[in-house]
Design goal:
- The protein has helices at 21-32, 64-68, 118-131, 162-165; strands spanning 15-18, 40-43, 58-60, 78-80, 102-106, 134-139, 143-148, 155-159.
- The protein has 182 residues and is α/β, with parallel strands linked by helices.
- The protein has a domain at 15-141.
- The termini are close together.
């Protein structure tokens, strides 16, 4: 049970959907400005590469009470220059948790679906692993890559349907979820 006045609510996980780097640059900053126990980004349908280290400017809520006890005036706002995937608890000055906790990746499905390059999904998985952020690979979408020699532009795809394309990334299902603290 959640106590009266407990904030942020532990059972509410805000997230944003992105498909491209442009979406990430715009939407993730808004997400990070929202107090939350858990924040997530859904990269689906993934339509291009996304580099989370490029999304650096994030507004951090400021609690003036934390500054008053140190005899220092509170700033009107603070900005983080850190990689948004770096998820860590708040420090003594900022009560809100900073960073992302979970990233979900999926390809496009349905009529007119476009293929998702395996390198895009691998890149996000690797970024999440390096930062200790939970990664969930949802699906390839309609397209299965049938040849991938890890050279740019050398991937062949076959339209097989969402179910047949599956959800294995490099031979493994990625089903990570963020840790929930009671």
């Amino acid at each position: 049970m959640i106590g009266v006045g407990e904030w942020p609510l532990k059972n509410v996980w805000p997230g944003v959907s992105i498909s491209t780097q442009e979406d990430a640059d715009r939407n993730i900053q808004l997400l990070l400005e929202t107090p939350a126990a858990v924040r997530f980004v859904s990269v689906e349908p993934m339509l291009g590469p996304v580099d989370f280290t490029r999304v650096k400017w994030a507004k951090i809520p400021v609690d003036p009470a934390n500054y008053a006890r140190h005899g220092v005036p509170a700033p009107d706002e603070m900005w983080s220059l850190n990689n948004v995937l770096v998820s860590r608890p708040a420090d003594d000055y900022n009560k809100a948790k900073i960073g992302l906790d979970w990233v979900i990746v999926g390809g496009e499905s349905g009529p007119g679906a476009r293929p998702m390059h395996p390198g895009w999904a691998r890149s996000i998985r690797d970024q999440c692993q390096a930062a200790g952020v939970s990664f969930y690979f949802k699906q390839w979408g309609e397209w299965k890559h049938v040849m991938d020699n890890h050279e740019p532009g050398r991937v062949l795809f076959e339209r097989v349907g969402k179910k047949a394309a599956g959800r294995l990334l490099d031979g493994r299902e990625w089903n990570e979820y963020p840790e929930i603290n009671p």
